Amino acid sequence: MPRTPFIAGNWKMNTVKATAIELAKAIVKGAPKAGVDVGVAPPFVYLDAVGQAITGSGVLLGAQDVYFEKNGAFTGEVSTDMLKDLGVKFVLTGHSERRHVIGESGALVGKKAAAAYAAGLIVVHCVGEKLEERDGGKTLQVVQAQLEELGNNMNDASKIVIAYEPVWAIGTGRNATDEQAQEVHGYIRQALAKRWNKDFADRVRIQYGGSMKPENAKGLLNQPDVDGGLIGGASLKADSFLAIVNAAL
Length: 249
Ligand code: PEP
What we know:
Layout: E1 6-10, H1 17-30, E2 37-41, H2 47-54, E3 60-63, H3 80-85, E4 90-93, H4 96-101, H5 106-118, E5 122-127, H6 131-135, H7 139-147, E6 160-164, H8 178-195, H9 198-203, E7 205-209, H10 214-221, E8 228-231, H11 238-247
Helix pairs in contact: 1-2, 1-11, 7-8, 10-11
The structure holds phosphoenolpyruvate.
Phosphoenolpyruvate (PEP) binds next to strand 8.
C-alpha cells in the first residue's frame, strides 16, 4: 500500500512574524511539487501571516493545538472554526510538550482529537513513551493507551496521522535508531488494524518525531512503517527542513 510521506514542521514557540514569513516563503520555494506532503505548524498568532505566505503552494498549514469546544467563555483557547477560517488543514493533538510540560490529560487530548476530526481537520495524534517507560519495558503499553484516545468513529484514514515521538528523543539530539522506530511503528500499525481494520491501518500515515535531522532522516524514512516525520528543531531552518523533505522522496 503506497502512502505519500508527510513531513511537517512544528515550530513550537519560536519565530517572530517576520522570521515566520521568511521561513514559510523559503519552504514554499524549495518544496518538491509532488511525491511528498509538506506542512508547517507555526505559533497560533502567525497562522494568518504564514497562511498567506504559503497560499497556492500546496504546503499545508497546521496548528500546534486546538480546544474542543465550539466557542464561548474559554479564555485564551482557539476553536476549530477559527483555525479553519485561517486555512488550517491539520492539527497536532497530544504533543509531548502539551502532555508532559503543560499537563494535558489523555482525556483532554482525546476530546481535542475528536473535535478536530469532527471539524474535518487532519488530526496528527502524537504518541510516545518517556525514558523511564522505555527502560521499564512499557513502551508499547503507553503507545497503545495513547492510541485509545482516538474514537472508534474516527475511521477516515486520510484524516488521521499518528506521530510516534519518543519523549526522550524530542529536542535532545538523541533520535530513536531505525530499528527502534520501526519496531514501534510496526506495532502501531498492527494496533490500528486490530482496533479498526487492515485497510484503515495500511492507509494511515505514521510519522516519526524526535531529533530527526538531515543526517538521520534517510535511514528512518526508509523503514517500511515510517511514513514521514514531525520535525521540531530542524524545521526552523529552511535548508535542514527541506533536506529532510527531500529525503522522503
Ligand atoms: C517535536 O517537537 O515534535 C519534535 C520532534 O522536536 P525535535 O525534532 O526538535 O526533536
